Amino acid sequence: MITISSLLSIILTTFHITSDMALGIDKPGLGMLFVFVPMVVLFLYATLLLPGRRSGFIIILLGSLFGLAVIYLHLSSPRIGARATASGGFFFIWTLVALGATSLFSVILAARGLWALQRAKRVS
């Protein structure tokens, strides 16, 4: 479940960042290549190559918390109403809601995974 949830969060994050640029919230440019792409690659690495490991759960937990922070920052902005009613606003808001749901679900699953690892360590 955590793999599917994390992959959905990654897809929704890329849609959201693209929507940010299309609506003029962020500027497209090389900054995305050096900031955003490595973050997505790290999240993909943790999701696909570190499943069930402590480091994978921690990276997914932190990445998912970051996803929740992005949503909070956007929705607390006084300009959110103008963004929501602009052309493409429906998709922008939809990705925020969907990213929030998958991020929160990933936080829960990662925390449960870390807890299960800790309990298994105590038992053995």
What does this structure look like?
By secondary structure, the chain is mainly α. The chain has one domain. It is 84% helix and 0% strand. It is built from 5 helices and no strands. Helix 1 packs antiparallel against helix 2, helix 1 runs antiparallel to helix 5 and helix 2 packs across helix 3. The longest helix has 35 residues.
Low-confidence stretches: none
End-to-end CA span: 26 Å
Which band does the percent of strand residues land in? under 5%
**Strand runs, count:** 0
Sheet with the most strands, sense and barrel status? none
* Mean model confidence by pLDDT: 89
Give the number of helices.
Answer: 5
Taken from the alpha-carbon principal axes, the silhouette is elongated
Helical coverage, percent range: over 70%
The Rg value, from CA coordinates, equals 16 Å
Give the ordered list of helices and strands: HHHHH
Q: What count of domains describes the coordinates? A: 1
Helix-and-strand structural type: mainly alpha
